[in-house]
Amino acid sequence: METLNPSSLTDAFSHLIAQIAISPPGARLAAISGQVAIDRSGQLVGGDNHAAQARQCFGNVLDSLVAIKADPKDILQMKIYVVRHTPDLVPVIFGAGADVFGDNWPVCASTWIGVEALARPQWLVEIEVLVALP
Prior knowledge:
four-stranded mixed sheet, alpha+beta, two-stranded antiparallel ribbon
């Protein structure tokens, strides 16, 4: 995947996101549905805690990547939906992602969306990704 941060746009967040992400020629794309803080058995993980829920969401994304034989670096686009968003949640949620991905953080096209609610009232974070399959 090729990422670009044109000089006409800010690079202030280039350690976390890319302004533009281009899939490799001929790559197949896989869309991973929005992952919420539900474990394999269908139980909510993290209660009313954004960080704990985000950690489970990112873990579910990672498990999905493994299932399609992809790597976090193959993520082309990530959308993060956050209930009751406040600016202090940004480092909390990105920190949860760093806990899961470590040095393999996916620098990709990214959108953070503060929302009033998700599909279930107990869900606080949902993460969906578009992947360029290797």
